[in-house]
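PROTEIN DESIGN WORKSHEET
SECTION A - STRUCTURE
LENGTH: 377
TOKENS:
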């Protein structure tokens, strides 16, 4: 099949899922065309069957805001027409599903019917999509998509609750390529912590919904009793909060390692003893799944789809959103019981296997085929 993928190029979860999916589809012999404002962060252009089309936004002084969505629709239109794409897959409703619908209409005028699949990722429904400036357009573009998928049961339910949706929403969970987690060893753990110290890790785009304040508070309390280091991977607006915390607690500065966006994420995850994700909202929690695939138990909140990924008392522990004290107790419990920690590492890895791409990729391929057949008949 010839597949067009629309996604954000940044390190956000939706862009990562879209990029990994596209690369695996390409690996399976499909021709995959990425369309985005920039080269997606994890896209490996040395792979066969991959194309990238940058959305070019013409800067014109009259515009206070440059019309990205129009440029995106035109890009989709041209790419579908030139390369004769069979399907368009929009990742994140705003603006991708909306722009794709416009492109579909333009193509229709030329006698070309191209099915549109929209995958909902989370904040397009639970946060940004709720804003009156976007809500009606999000609802419209979901209803106008040929097929709609969501990355968790929880997000599917939230979509029906928050919008007037006439479509069936199919849940296709996010996935992981467990194959890339097999070749790591513990050689460089000493670069991050001494042998007697535990490593707590947090990976996110450091936005408010991630509740970085809870990450810092849990770390502060745990390290008072158990020697612990904190690694924070990612960049975002809440970095200011981290800096303020460090200024307020100078003795903790040597114990906190800020790493920004790293290419060696999977390798560093493998050194961690616990992954912490206390989010206010999380439709799935791809970062938690990546940690589990690296054999790291997860301490998370019970937000959104997290309980579908992190299994309480098995792959880690779950506490209510904002319940820092329970997160501290759970982390200490893990750190003080080597047998429990070892078992939870195994459980985390086993659970990650259930989300292996080999189980998920066929679901997308089947959906593409169904959409194409439906379009023809
Ligand atoms: O919130 C983020 O980290 C970014 C955001 C995105 O759309 O890029 O992530 C959402 O999509 C991810 C991939 O499907 C999910 O794993 C995240 O849980 C979801 N984030 C939220 O719902 C807050």
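SECTION B - SEQUENCE
RESIDUE ASSIGNMENT:
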């Amino acid at each position: 099949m010839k597949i067009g993928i629309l996604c954000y190029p940044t390190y956000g979860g939706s862009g990562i899922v879209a990029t990994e999916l596209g690369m695996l589809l390409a690996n399976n012999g499909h021709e995959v065309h990425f369309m985005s404002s920039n080269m997606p962060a994890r896209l490996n252009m040395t792979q066969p069957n991959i194309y990238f089309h940058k959305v070019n936004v013409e800067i014109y002084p009259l515009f206070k805001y440059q019309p990205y969505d129009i440029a995106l629709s035109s890009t989709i239109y041209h790419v579908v027409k030139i390369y004769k794409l069979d399907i368009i897959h929009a990742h994140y409703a705003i603006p991708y599903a909306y722009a794709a619908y416009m492109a579909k209409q333009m193509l229709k005028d030329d006698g070309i019917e191209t099915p549109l699949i929209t995958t909902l990722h989370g904040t397009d429904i639970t946060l940004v999509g709720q804003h009156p400036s976007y809500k009606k357009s999000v609802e419209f573009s979901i209803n106008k998509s040929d097929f709609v998928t969501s990355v968790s049961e929880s997000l599917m339910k939230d979509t029906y609750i928050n919008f007037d949706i006439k479509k069936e929403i199919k849940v296709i969970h996010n996935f992981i390529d467990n194959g890339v987690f097999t070749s790591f060893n513990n050689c460089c753990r000493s670069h991050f912590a001494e042998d007697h110290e535990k490593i707590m890790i947090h990976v996110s785009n450091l936005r408010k919904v991630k509740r970085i304040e809870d990450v810092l508070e849990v770390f502060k309390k745990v390290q008072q009793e158990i020697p612990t280091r904190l690694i924070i991977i990612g960049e975002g607006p809440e970095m200011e909060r981290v800096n303020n915390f460090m200024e307020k607690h100078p003795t903790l500065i040597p114990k906190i390692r800020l790493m920004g966006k790293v290419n060696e994420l999977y390798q560093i995850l493998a050194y961690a003893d616990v992954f912490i994700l206390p989010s206010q909202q999380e439709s799935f929690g791809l970062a938690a799944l990546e940690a589990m695939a690296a054999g790291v138990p997860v301490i998370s909140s019970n937000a959104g789809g997290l309980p579908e990924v992190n299994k309480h008392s098995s792959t880690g522990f779950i506490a209510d959103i904002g319940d820092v004290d329970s997160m501290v107790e759970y982390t200490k419990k893990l750190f003080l019981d080597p047998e429990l920690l070892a078992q939870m590492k195994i459980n985390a890895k086993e659970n990650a296997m259930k989300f292996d791409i080999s189980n998920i990729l066929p679901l997308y391929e089947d959906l593409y085929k169904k959409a194409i057949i439906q379009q023809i008949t």
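SECTION C - NOTES
The chain has two domains: 2-175+356-376, 178-355.
The mean pLDDT is 95.
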